[in-house]
Design goal:
Length: about 280
């Protein structure tokens, strides 16, 4: 099975991406949560061009990808699940949990360490919040994330299947929880116990620093509740809250060239843990 997974991993990931993207984009048109503030044409062109750039870059830099590292760990017998015999379904489930916790902690770290916030803040600088925001990460953050994921896989030794399922799930939930879709409140309250919903993650994109420093989860909503970083709703309400960061707020900042330069602009001190207004 591993050989099949390794050969078809990129096809599975790509197919899931296009399928879920199409569903979320249609849902946003049918039942939007907020009125968009900016031209969709510029934002979508930039965010989608960045998505293509990132996926090409990762493919070139890391041709074996995360599934390849999991297979390598399996062959070498390195990593917890390759050393201790655990029933396969349990190893898959525990690996999914552990990988999700790692992503949560990594996200926390990207907010807490100034130089990492410089790289991550481009994700927060989007002035609207929709399905394309879910793929708006700086290439440096994509590379660092991949290296961290490789390290976690080498320590964990997860089944190849768990890694592929995790990557597809993370991609799917990122598009879902960034989408500008209206979900009835009662349903949202229930869903939030299982998965991070758009209303939950939107709080994380608030211009307000304490709100921006909450709801770090991407897949499972439990880590935020467990570690005390959960915030139910934005103070200003979902329709009126301001999306983005103080630093990059012009229309021109939504162009890809400016987005790519954002880690290198402005003061190092302007990061969200301290609540100082961010100087340009
Ligand atoms: Zn963040
Ligand atoms: Zn986000």
């Amino acid at each position: 099975m591993d050989t099949w997974l390794l050969t078809h991993a990129s096809g599975v990931r790509l197919g899931a991406f296009f399928g879920i993207f199409a569903v979320m984009a249609a849902w946003e048109v049918a039942a939007p949560r907020r009125a968009l503030q900016e031209s969709k044409r510029v934002r979508w062109a930039s965010n989608l061009a960045l998505t293509v750039l990132n996926s090409d870059l990762l493919r070139i830099l890391f041709p074996v990808a995360a599934v390849g590292v999991a297979a390598f760990a399996g062959e070498r017998g390195t990593g917890l699940f390759n050393i201790f015999a655990v029933p396969y379904p349990l190893a898959v489930a525990l690996s999914l949990l552990a990988l999700d916790l790692a992503i949560y902690l990594q996200h926390l770290m990207f907010h807490a360490v100034p130089v990492l916030w410089r790289v991550h803040r481009m994700h927060h600088a989007d002035l609207d919040f929709d399905v394309t925001t879910g793929a708006r990460f700086h290439p440096i953050e994509m590379i660092l994330s991949m290296l961290i994921k490789f390290a976690v896989i080498l320590v964990l030794g997860p089944p190849v299947l768990a890694v592929l399922v995790f990557e597809v799930l993370l991609n799917a939930t990122a598009m879902f929880n960034h989408s500008n879709v209206r979900i009835p409140q009662a349903l949202d309250r229930t869903l939030r116990w299982l998965v991070v919903t758009p209303d939950m993650h939107r709080v994380h994109h608030s211009i307000d620093a304490p709100e921006c420093n909450s709801n770090f989860g991407f897949n499972l909503p439990w880590w935020d509740r467990l570690f005390g970083t959960y915030r139910a709703q934005p103070a200003a309400g979902h329709e009126r809250m301001i999306i983005g960061i103080r630093q990059f707020r012009s229309h021109r900042d939504l162009w890809l060239d400016r987005m790519l330069l954002e880690p290198f602009r402005g003061q190092t001190g302007s990061y969200p843990i301290n609540r100082q207004p961010e100087a340009r």
